[in-house]
Design goal:
Chain lengths: ~375, ~60
């Protein structure tokens, strides 16, 4: 590569990193507890006591569950019913209105075998919520998501340019060499290089899927005005619902339509994931991958009969598959620990990059570049 | 010795392929797929550990 070309790549690496580093550090630090959010929440919030099933235990009737949940929250409406992927636990989410903001929901857990309702979970406004908001939208909603998405794009540019400028450094070095004998700066330069190249694939995947996740809201919007609108088009001019029909039968209809799937959550009529006239039952498969690929079954909320069920379009599937690849929550606790270790290495890479910039020598960039080309590599250490 | 691209990138390439395999395999299934994922994603981390230890040892030997 010509010296000019290399210089441009070096500038790309320097500036994309400089702009994004502080935010990437924030993402790495807040991401660390978020990797273990399930474990942390289970530890601090008591799991509802699931009783062992007995022969005379009642069978769940979802309509009774809904009635019970509403009786406990007078004046509220049900927005969603969700299902725990591991335990036989469900959640009724109620609020004073059907439309967002979704953060003001009230969550009542229930046993999906017997229908027993448990005491509501305390509202989650503590440490984990702070971490989540700092990690996702910086308390700014959509602009915050998109801003962090841009930071993620800068990370990707920094990774690509980083690989390019890695090349001249390694012309005269064996892979994974860290020259620790000469100077601090040289040692950290080598360390920055080896840690960066070794973790490249993981950081790249988590970075790109993170960027895709920042587009969740626009993707939801596209799906609502696209596929969802198409699926509910026959009901466009239907008169408003007077009362909701049986959720229990609606779930049965959805299960019959997709016998090898289980419900993930139900969006009630009038919420952003359904029409005014449907229970939208989002079905999921049972392998780690298909469990993420939700399939919406729309059930008429008056008659409880299935009206339409479709595969999600590709752009939604991309988002749904990006979620586990970013969160690391699809391979048990060991995978989460692996995620955390990579995250710690990423913090060292960011820190060492910042150190290398702060301790840079005040020499003309032409000189540094001739060193980059390998002609005077060792001079790098004599700062 | 000036190394060519293949010499420079053969190990990084192998590590990247292992990482992709690990990231992908846990998505496909559980149990043996999870195990494969932990092992292959563990290789780059193990290497980080080796580099780190080697550096600490070099530091100590200079004292």
């Amino acid at each position: 590569m010509t010296a000019r070309g290399l210089r441009s790549w070096y500038l790309v690496h320097k500036w994309t990193s400089l702009i994004a580093t502080i935010f990437l550090l924030l993402l790495c630090l807040t991401g660390l507890p978020l990797i273990f959010h399930e474990e942390i929440e289970h530890y601090f919030e008591q799991h509802p006591p699931l009783r062992p099933l007995t022969a005379d235990a009642p069978q769940i009737d979802y309509d009774k569950v809904i009635a019970g949940a509403l009786a406990a929250r007078p004046g509220e409406v049900v927005r969603f019913v969700g299902f725990d992927p591991q335990d036989p636990l469900g959640f009724v989410i109620t609020a004073t209105g059907l439309v967002p903001p979704p953060l003001d929901g009230h969550i009542q857990p229930f046993d999906t075998r017997t229908g027993e309702l448990f005491a509501p979970e305390p509202a989650d406004d503590g440490f984990m919520n702070l971490m989540l908001r700092l990690h996702t939208d910086l308390f700014m909603g959509l602009p915050g998501y998109l801003f962090l998405g841009v930071m993620g794009l800068l990370l990707v540019a920094s990774l690509v340019s980083g690989v390019v400028v890695y090349t001249p450094f390694m012309r005269k070095l064996d892979f994974s060499t860290v020259r620790s004998g000469r100077s601090r700066r040289l040692k950290w330069l080598d360390l920055h290089n080896v840690l960066g190249i070794v973790t490249l694939a993981w950081v790249l995947v988590v970075g790109i899927t993170g960027v895709i996740n920042t587009l969740a809201l626009p993707i939801q919007g596209m799906w609502q005005t696209g596929q969802l609108a198409e699926m509910t088009a026959p009901y466009k001019d239907a008169p408003p619902l007077e009362r909701l029909g049986s959720l229990h039968k609606a779930l049965e209809s959805a299960r019959n339509a997709a016998p090898d799937m289980v419900p993930s959550f139900v969006a009630f009529p009038g919420t952003q994931f359904s029409s005014q006239h449907h229970y939208a039952v989002f079905m999921r498969g049972t392998t780690p991958l298909t469990a993420r690929l939700l399939k919406p079954a729309l059930v008429d909320a008056r008659t409880s009969e299935l009206t339409d069920m479709r595969e999600m379009p590709l752009y939604v599937k991309t988002l749904l598959v990006s979620q586990p690849l970013h969160f690391g929550d699809y391979g048990g606790l060991p995978l989460k620990i692996i995620w955390a270790l990579f995250d710690l290495v990423a913090i060292v890479i960011l820190g060492s990059g910042l150190y290398l910039w702060l301790s840079r020598r005040k020499v003309p960039s032409e000189k540094r570049l001739s060193e980059l080309n390998g002609k005077a590599m060792d001079a790098e250490g004599r700062a | 010795m000036r190394r060519g691209l293949w010499m420079i990138f053969r190990w990084p390439l192998l590590l990247a392929l292992l990482s992709f395999l690990g990231l992908f395999s846990a998505l496909v299934g559980d149990e043996v797929y999870d195990l494969l994922s932990w092992l292959s994603l563990g290789v780059p981390l193990l290497l980080v550990g080796v580099v780190w230890r080697r550096m600490l040892q070099a530091n100590r030997s200079r004292l």
